[in-house]
Amino acid sequence: MAPSPSTSAADLLAGSPPPPVPRLASTSPVRLSRASQSASLPPSTSKFRYSAPPEDASTTSVQRPKPSPPRSGPVKTSTLLPRPSPRAQEPQQAGVSSYGQSSAWKGKGKEVDSSVAAPAVATVPQKRPFTSTKSTGPQPAESLLRRLGGPSDQKAGLMRDKEEVRQIIYEASKNSKYFIAQQEKDAQLTLRVDALVARLNRLLAERGGNVKAEQARVDEMIAELEKTRVLTETIVVVDADAFYASCHQREDPSLVGTAFAVGGGVLTTASYEARKYGCSSAMAGFVAKKLCPHLKFISLDFSLYSSCSKSIMAILRQYGDISPASLDEAYCSLTDYCRREKVTPAEAAERMRAQVLAETGLSVSAGVSPNAMLSKVAADKNKPNGQCVIDPTPEACMEFAGGLPIRNVPGIGRVSERILQAVGVHTVADVYRLRGELFLIRNEVGLSFLLRAYLGLGRTTISHADRSQRKGISVERTFHSESNIARFYKRLENIAEALAGDCEKSQYSGRTITLKIKTHTYQSISRAKTLGSAIYFSDARTFYTEGKKLLDKEMANRRQMIARGQIPKGGKDFCLRLIGLRLSNLRDDKATKDTGKLDGWAGTRSKSKAATNSQGKSKVKKEESAPPDELAFESGDLDEEHNRSDLFGDEDDHHSLGFDDEDDVKPTLDGDGDELQQLNNFIRSSQGEHPSSDQLWAAVGDDVDLSGMEGFDEDSADEEDDIKPIDTTHKPFWTAGESLNSKKQTGAGPAPMKDRLSFESKRVKEEMDEDADFFIVEDEPVVGPLKCPVCEKSFAGSEVALSAHVASHFDDEEPVKKKVKVGSSSSAKSVKSVKPRSLKDMFARR
DNA sequence: GCGGATCAC
DNA sequence: TATGGTGATCCGC
Ligand SMILES: Nc1ccn([C@H]2C[C@H](O)[C@@H](COP(=O)(O)OP(=O)(O)OP(=O)(O)O)O2)c(=O)n1
Ligand SMILES: [Mg+2]
């Protein structure tokens, strides 16, 4: 294809960074505005010369079996994209300490001496910074191999040769449908990347390769961001080592020291012994078996993980406010603890980890720094039973951040990595090096997100979740591809039942149901329906009937398309491998009930019947009264030909071995008791057991009880301080909060996901309109002709979208509300006053 | 509101 | 032979 012209500005760029001007000298990137912080921001890359990390230094117990990786076989694999610099391995940085060395974080000035040093990366000339990846050769594209999983990086010493592993993965995968699907995705991504590269090259060409002006603008951005730096907090991230695996080891000591994985069809995690062979999370079981023939597979046991998690969290809670991000990971503020106990953060973290190990038998690792993002990354640095502390200085933070592979930044996944890599960004420091170029495509790459990473900024407060913040509940099941419509319905029933069960347990209703299907070619499709702005439901029957409608509609649609000669998504065959349902736009029935403010809003939730408000009767009730007719499909239809959706051909039949393939998927909608049986039967599935939603959220409600019961220290959090707005509850830490604060104070938490990828344009409009001149929007048409009268959001050319959006104002939708400023248009106010407020707003707000 | 992507764990 | 489940965010309609 045309893209990535050999001529291109890629060449221009190759020499771009280093060229004429002594960049570092001339453009002192930032100036600190904060008086208290007298830091001179280091240039993009300072020199790191480290001695190998202290590796073992401290830490007690928990033997860490040293590597012992086999040899490295032949294996070649052509890497199409040469890495620009053979970055030093895990260098030890000034201001960063691996263990408790009290040196760290004493506040004592580290001298990072960032004054000198030529940009490390730039010293290794890049042939073509901006290349597109094309797998022309016999070997699969680098990006494809990467997509297939395997070692993401690092820990070179711990594992057998990375390339060998990837080769094995490739060989095991290459003939599967999954592989084909990944290949296709990769091809699509390549197009996207090529387009971006072409655009960048064009923009560069227009400027003759001179991006000094752009660099200057970025430097301004950096200066602004720097003002937001907060170094006064001490945030620790604690992450259990091989969590699921460790839990099982605790229960069954015979597993210790052995290579085993948790999960069946797909591994959720692998023991460290298994990791030496290349086994890892999200890897297919059969692939893992190839990598490690003697690998043992352990079935999932979620109650075990929950229990272990609770134990860990209870301990962490003694040190400060916590915010669990998952069962095995939590953020915790050590600020107060350190002050009170007069210990260094490193020491505090050591205590924490030691206590967890002693009391639960689970080893955890920790990262400590002034903010959540750095701590999160740091927690992985010395992974098995180790910790890493970053001093609270701009220098230490930036130096640590700068050395990271861009992929290690939370929020940068495979796709973002590839996009960035195409423009020459491999490490965080590259962001600065290529800031001028990145500015040209700031919207696509989420420049300010990257800059925050470069500066080592992150969230510094611990927020907590409340039930009202939950957005959805879902159940989905994978099975061997099939095309029998009656069976689809039965699966849908089971899923509806399971979802209703989860809703009941967690006490939520919702007003939007989404059907998700995945075709045998791994095409994901979702179809949603919102019954009404005030119609909430949580019963299996509604889930089923609405889900069925969506499914039927989709099938009809496809038939039509095919009749018209078009090819629907996922191909002509309607052969599925997954069906799922998701309930969203939730209402917290617990809060609703507890407050008793239900006024005219009909019953909360009696059994499993629809919980709807008075206005909801129309749809749901109707179906409730309308008996089984809707469900018309008798078991007899099961094997009938006309029930086959594949007028086009069935897919690989089966004789399962792993999935949700119970041959007998009986309709149990009105089921009395054997749903449990059913569910238990599911256990044939690849995972052995299903997470049953709640994983994280379940604890939110009982949190109080929990801490009360286990409350050892029974406080550790009050006294001592004035402002103590923070409480502890369950909540994914990176979400919620960022956007709420119009002041946007902090910046990236672990991975706000707020601003990433192509979200830049939105931010420009929404956040920067105050000091507008700061960002330019030159390469953006900006205002479309259509604008929302309420929030002023503009819509380019789509009246439908606009009207839907405007309507959403009247639905009291979250996003709109957020955007509406206090003093916004009067029309908004008047309208709002007329409309009933959502239950969520009325009752769920603290 | 919807649907597709992306990401984390 | 063969690649999971739950939850969240964001974009562009
Ligand atoms: N794709 C994934 C990734 C993780 N998990 C589960 C299993 C893990 O044990 C747990 C914690 O995830 P981590 O990313 O923290 O991985 P581990 O704790 O297993 O290993 P590490 O020592 O790297 O933290 O989440 C999962 O089900 N599916
Ligand atoms: Mg972990």
UniProtKB/TrEMBL annotation:
Where composition is biased (Polar residues), the residues are 25-48, 90-104, 129-138
Where is composition skewed (Low complexity) in this entry? 114-125, 822-831
Q: Which transformation does this protein catalyse, written as a reaction?
A: DNA(n) + a 2'-deoxyribonucleoside 5'-triphosphate = DNA(n+1) + diphosphate
Show the InterPro entries listed in the entry. DNA/RNA_pol_sf, DNA_pol_Y-fam_lit_finger_sf, DNA_pol_Y-fam_little_finger, DNA_polymerase-Y, DNApol_IV, Rev_trsase/Diguanyl_cyclase, UmuC
Q: Name one GO cellular component term.
A: nucleus
Q: So what EC number does this one have?
A: 2.7.7.7
Which positions fall inside the UmuC domain?
235-413
Q: Does the UniProt entry include the keyword DNA repair?
A: yes
| Disordered, as annotated region | 1-159, 594-675, 705-756, 813-846
Which Gene3D superfamilies is this protein grouped with?
Answer: 1.10.150.810, 3.30.70.270, 3.40.1170.60, DNA polymerase, Y-family, little finger domain
Any single GO BP term: error-prone translesion synthesis
A Gene Ontology molecular function term of the record: DNA-directed DNA polymerase activity
Pfam families registered for this protein in UniProt: IMS, IMS_C
- Taxonomically, the superkingdom here is Eukaryota
Q: Write out the entry's keywords from A to Z.
A: DNA damage, DNA repair, DNA replication, DNA-directed DNA polymerase, Magnesium, Metal-binding, Nucleotidyltransferase, Transferase
Entry annotated with the keyword Transferase? yes
Amino acid composition bias (Acidic residues), ranges on this chain = 711-722
Q: Where is the composition biased (Basic and acidic residues)?
A: 641-658
Put simply, this protein is called: DNA polymerase kappa
Give the species. Answer: Leucosporidium creatinivorum
